[in-house]
Design brief:
alpha/beta; globular
Length: 250
């Protein structure tokens, strides 16, 4: 994303923002509510048009009129709410809006079940109750279904919005393992999170936004949690950051 801007009247929600993402990389995107990170990700997901700027996928410029255009080039989003239909089972949720049909035009439930079994087995081989309504499943299992739905369709870029919010410790660990598996498969992930532990545990780089601008972009081994908090709150690194990093380099 190169020099992205988004204006709402006189309000600049995103201002001259450039970020990149490589295959098999997890980039944490942080900032207070209203910092512009959600707006930036909506632009990448095709849910919002930028006022100006360029998006390139594998070096080629792209333009999105809606989320379907973004999905067509391999960009999927998992929102915090997961957007699952509680009364439907895993296969029905996975193919919701993209149902497989038989040659007679009927729903091909066998093919959808097989597809769901294959992709969910990649993520969690112990997940067996695929035919239960998702309302009966745990938070971690629901997150597995949301991720499976995202990666089934040849995803190259995955946007994850607070994927461990409201999960218990064991389910949070499960989602962290899923993210590592996706990274190992070469999927690039933007991780939007307020959880500093998740960011430092899972991310290769961190990008911090403040008042619509990128105020810091660093490899995770270049910064501490206090450094990142300073970027989030004050929009700048602590005064001693350069000296500390110079000492580390020496």
């Amino acid at each position: 994303m190169i020099d992205i801007e988004k204006h709402f009247g006189g309000v600049r929600a995103v201002e001259h923002v450039s970020v990149d993402l490589w295959p098999g990389e997890v980039v944490g995107l942080l900032g207070h509510n209203g910092a512009g990170k959600s707006c930036l990700m909506k632009i990448l997901a095709g849910a919002m048009a930028p006022s100006s700027g360029t998006i390139r996928i594998a070096g080629k410029p792209v333009q999105f009129n809606d989320p379907n255009d973004a999905r067509a080039v391999g960009i999927e989003t998992i929102y915090q709410t997961l957007a699952l239909a509680d009364h439907l089972d895993a296969p029905a949720n996975l193919f919701l809006g993209r149902e497989l049909k038989t040659r007679f035009g009927n729903l091909d439930e066998a093919a959808m079940l097989k597809g769901a079994e294959e992709v969910i087995a990649r993520l969690n081989p112990n997940f067996k109750n695929l035919r239960d309504p998702v309302s009966r499943l745990s938070g971690g299992q629901r997150q597995v279904i949301a991720i499976a739905r995202a990666i089934y369709f040849d995803t190259r870029i995955l946007i994850m919005d607070e994927p461990t919010a409201a999960l218990g410790p064991s389910e949070t660990a499960m989602v962290a393992d899923l993210i590592r598996k996706l990274r190992a498969e070469g999927i690039g992930i933007f991780l939007v999170s307020h959880d500093m532990h998740d960011v430092f545990d899972l991310c290769d780089r961190v990008v911090v936004m403040n008042k619509g601008k990128v105020v810091g972009a660093h490899r995770i081994d270049e910064v501490t949690k206090d450094d990142v908090l300073s970027l989030i709150i004050k929009g700048e690194l602590p005064a001693d950051w350069s000296a500390r990093n110079l000492e580390t380099a020496e």
